[in-house]
Amino acid sequence: MIPPRSNRTATIRWNKRIYRQRNRIERMIGHLKINRAIATRYDKLARSFLDMLHLAALRRLLRHATL
Question: Residue 48's pLDDT band (boundaries 50, 70, 90)?
């Protein structure tokens, strides 16, 4: 769903809405990986890793809510 370059000769169909959603998800994952514990996956249990993801997402949400 990535849009083609402007100099491409063959046309490729793409959906702008799906591309925008995909881009938002990729940016959120990138922001979550800034947290070292998530990027290196220190937690051995899936539940504790998920809890760490929740904490990182909440921290990001609170940071943007105060601006």
Answer: confident
Gap between the Cα atoms of 57 and 67, Å rounded? 16
Q: In this structure, what token pair is assigned to residue 43?
A: 């937690």
Q: At what angle do helices 16-32 and 46-65 cross, to 10 degrees?
A: 110
Alpha-carbon span 35 to 12, nearest angstrom: 37
pLDDT of residue 67: 60
**Residue keyed to tokens 């591309």:** 19
Give the H/E segment covering residue 56. helix 46-65
Residues 6+ apart with CB under 8 A from 16: 3
Longest Cα separation, the chain: 50
